[in-house]
């Protein structure tokens, strides 16, 4: 699913808790009716751009390709922010 909108807030979380795997959870606005309001940038995608953090994307526009996983979470396959960075799943 293709999404476009604004990142209202973002937080780095360990998933699963107690592990060393960090994910970036984004809460969104302006994505349209019936679309997810929260998406997750997985650990592997975060590794491709170590400078990416929660504070740097908050308030920025974005465009993302997301898929729903078996647990019901919307996981990012590729995302670009208004500052021009584009991250893609290396697989």
Automatic annotation (TrEMBL):
It comes from Paludisphaera borealis. This is Uncharacterized protein.
